[in-house]
């Protein structure tokens, strides 16, 4: 006697895997933006962009805390970046300016994608706390560097702060702004070995002349 065939199971498909959790805007900002559309400037390979991101991490730039907690650090960088986009030149401590430089370069890369790019708009909306600056990013700054890949900013040391902490200070600016150029820093030649030896010789000679016996004879 033939055994009845088992009932066929309904044709079901495995449910699709859940989408990966989206990164916060400030964290996804650290990943390289997609290349700009063709015709909008020089294209960069994905490998080169990954390399530049890895180099930034290896140099410790991404993890500089600036003496603040994560949220306070991000808020500080947002305010600094907003001020830089508005004035195109700001003065701050060297540590903050050095950390800001990577973010100031990255926001221009996103600006090159255009205001029709969803991710570029999200980045601009998050990082620029003053929303009237969003058109400036896409319509003024990004076109200025259309034919340039990187090196949008200039970082320059200035004299240390004169209060008790003597903090190292710097000026960071976007290249091509309408502000008068900063004077080039003077090279300190007094600290060279030769000048130090000459200074010591002059001091010894002056001390010898002022002594009661006068300078030694030949």
Automatic annotation (TrEMBL):
<keyword id="KW-0687">Ribonucleoprotein</keyword>
<dbReference type="Pfam" id="PF01196">
    <property type="entry name" value="Ribosomal_L17"/>
</dbReference>
<feature type="compositionally biased region" description="Pro residues">
    <location>
        <begin position="1"/>
        <end position="23"/>
    </location>
</feature>
<comment type="similarity">
    <text>Belongs to the bacterial ribosomal protein bL17 family.</text>
</comment>
<feature type="region of interest" description="Disordered">
    <location>
        <begin position="1"/>
        <end position="46"/>
    </location>
</feature>
<dbReference type="GO" id="GO:0019904">
    <property type="term" value="F:protein domain specific binding"/>
</dbReference>
<dbReference type="GO" id="GO:0006412">
    <property type="term" value="P:translation"/>
</dbReference>
<keyword id="KW-0496">Mitochondrion</keyword>
<dbReference type="GO" id="GO:0003735">
    <property type="term" value="F:structural constituent of ribosome"/>
</dbReference>
<dbReference type="InterPro" id="IPR036373">
    <property type="entry name" value="Ribosomal_bL17_sf"/>
</dbReference>
<protein>
    <recommendedName>
        <fullName>Large ribosomal subunit protein bL17m</fullName>
    </recommendedName>
</protein>
<dbReference type="GO" id="GO:0005762">
    <property type="term" value="C:mitochondrial large ribosomal subunit"/>
</dbReference>
<dbReference type="InterPro" id="IPR000456">
    <property type="entry name" value="Ribosomal_bL17"/>
</dbReference>
<keyword id="KW-0689">Ribosomal protein</keyword>
<keyword id="KW-0809">Transit peptide</keyword>
């Amino acid at each position: 006697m033939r055994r009845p065939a088992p009932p066929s199971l309904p044709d079901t498909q495995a449910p699709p895997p859940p989408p990966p959790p989206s990164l916060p805007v400030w964290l996804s900002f650290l990943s390289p933006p997609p290349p700009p559309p063709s015709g909008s400037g020089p294209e960069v390979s994905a490998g080169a962009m990954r390399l530049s991101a890895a180099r930034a991490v290896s140099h410790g730039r991404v993890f500089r805390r600036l003496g603040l907690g994560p949220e306070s650090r991000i808020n500080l960088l947002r305010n600094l970046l907003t001020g830089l986009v508005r004035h195109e030149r700001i003065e701050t401590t060297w540590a903050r300016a050095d950390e800001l430089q990577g973010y100031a370069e990255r926001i221009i890369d996103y600006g090159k994608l255009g205001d029709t790019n969803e991710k570029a708009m999200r980045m601009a909306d998050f990082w620029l706390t003053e929303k009237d600056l969003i058109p400036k990013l896409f319509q003024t700054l990004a076109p200025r560097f259309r034919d340039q890949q990187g090196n949008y900013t200039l970082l320059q040391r200035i004299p240390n702060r004169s209060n008790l902490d003597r903090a190292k200070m710097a000026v960071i600016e976007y290249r091509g702004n309408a502000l008068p150029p900063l004077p080039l820093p003077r090279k300190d030649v007094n600290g060279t070995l030769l000048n130090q030896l000459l200074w010591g010789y002059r001091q010894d000679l002056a001390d010898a002349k002022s002594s009661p016996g006068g300078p030694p004879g030949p």
